[in-house]
Design brief:
The complex is a heterodimer of chains A (271) and B (351). Chain A contains 13 helices and two strands; from the N terminus they run αββαααααααααααα. Chain A is an all-alpha fold. Chain A has one domain: MetI-like fold, CATH 1.10.3720. The radius of gyration of chain A is 23 Å and the shape is globular. Chain B has 351 residues and is an alpha+beta fold. In chain B, 25% of the residues lie in helices and 34% in strands. In chain B, the strands form four sheets. A six-stranded mixed beta sheet of chain B has the order 6-7-8-3-9-10, with helices on both faces. In chain B, strands 13-12-11-14-20 form a five-stranded antiparallel beta sheet, with no helix packed on it. The radius of gyration of chain B is 25 Å and the shape is elongated. Chain B starts with a strand and ends in a 5-residue tail after the last strand. The chains are: A mainly alpha (271), B alpha+beta (351). At the A-B interface, helix 8, helix 9 and helix 13 of A face strand 6, helix 2 and helix 3 of B.
Chain lengths: 271, 351
Amino acid sequence: MKKYKKDRYISGVITAIFAAAVILPVLTLFVWSFTQRWAWPYIIPGNFSLNAVIDVFEKLKKPGGILISGVVLSLITALLSVIIALMSAKALLFYNFPGRNALLFGSILPFIVPASVFSMGVQLLFINLGLNNTLHGVMIAHLIYSLPYALRLIMDAMSAIGEKYEEQARVLGACGIRAFVDITVPMLLPVSLTAFCMAYIISFSQYFLTLLIGGGRVITFTIIMVPYLTSGNRNFASAYSLVFLGISVIIFMLSKKAAAISNRQLKTQLY
Amino acid sequence: MGLVIKDLKVSLMKSEILHGISLDVKDGELVSLLGASGCGKSTLLKAIAGLTETDGGIIEIDGSVVNETAPEKRGSVIVFQDLRLFPHMDVGNNIAFPMRLRKMSVRDIENKVKSLLHDVHLDGFERRQISEISGGQMQRVALARAIAAQPKLLLLDEPFSGLDEELRIEMEKLVAGLHKKMEITTVLVTHDKREALYMSDRVALMDCGNILQYDTPHNIYYNPNSKKTAEYFGRVNYIKGNIKSGIFTSNSGIWKTKPGDISDDTIEDGEYEALVRPHNIGIIKDGGRYVVKSISFMGEFEEISIDTGDKTVFIIATGGYCLSNSISIGNYAGISIEAGMVKFLKADILK
């Protein structure tokens, strides 16, 4: 009993440390968002200002502004990543075809090749294809970069499930596509959600790739935020970072909610 | 009609697993594929269902060759050993799945699900999650789902292997009852000889990708065509001797090859071995010339080994028989053989 209490105390302390490691920086960001001047060694900020917060919301309010070009672009990229990853994972895991191993190796290349090198290569290709400086060009570039992450996540889960449930669905009368859509896809819903969030955050936080392929014409939230971060303007940088964090948390929560609803519907649908 | 397989060959990883299997299952018949693990039973089942590619041969279901037909169009449904219930659907939706594919109305599906759950003794389980039901209940749901697909051919791949004995017997009775009621042509894969003999109209004994013998349970047990077949169903005593004019003569005794009039006997003269099951040999306490070597008590029965001089004969008696008849190791005893239960095969066949 005594040991149990001690274990609980230790795990409580560890949890508190981890919680503090997340909450304290966010809290600092929050304070900095309303602070114009906070010099060392003062514990309390010297000057408060709403300039940064007002600037962020002014930009967010603009129709067709950063909200659409950033969040929507990343959401579409993430959705496409998951759809393509689901189909690619099935092909790479369960079908034998020439070049399968080369494709498998190719799928991990973005983990090995630095983003800057990758971006240069993609830019050269896109200039030839006429995709440079366009929104869909940026989206395709984001997709190429985020797809391997989604693919790896989904492949691991799909490999664990195997083909057995699809085989069962086939002998019960489902065609190949129906078996995949009705059985495998819902079973992979939790990992698809993780892959979606991963692809979203990769796309949403892309700066160099967006700048290079978008040529300054495609403005995303990150494109505006990063200069503030690098220039040392902590007030504006914090306000933008906080919004970045807030949007990401909202997107994650909404996707989780959607997955939970979809899962519940699947489990309890009346035929 | 039913199922016809001719010279079926299947390879996995470039190694031939089935070496020209031929089998016919009549309409409404229940046939067991019996054999040890790795003998190719499940591969045969998957080939019939279209889940494994074949190298050669013909598979006919209900008179149509289905070699090139997709699994969903063959009309065969497998209940796999691991059941494969869809974890993201509840019991009702699992059973409804094949009916939804056939685009049945919601009301019809609802009624059919209820009726099937009643058939497998799971009334009221529609809304239960798969994770909330026991192993035995999962077996029943898998069976109900398979029947819901209205198969022409039901393939059962060791569906009872994970169950304890009591539940296994209950499930066997349930399957046998449903088969009798619905008359679905059924192929059962099992490595349990008792299950195969009890449930089947015919049994196909498989070994290393071949069928050793395909016959009725009684015939495969009492008229094995090889030592392998005979021994698969339990211990066998082999008594060497020769037959002349319907009389078998051996060191262990002399008896008629067939009870009744010798002139009716058709066994030709020659060297034979008599195959005798241990429970078809009796022990004679008094006046015998053989020595009791061992007595192994196993509860319901006991195995007694008797040294006949040139070989050891095994006898199965009711449990406690030796104790109640004061027979102990080292005693002299005789043996009596049920002549009608002896299989004679020419010595050169028994390889």
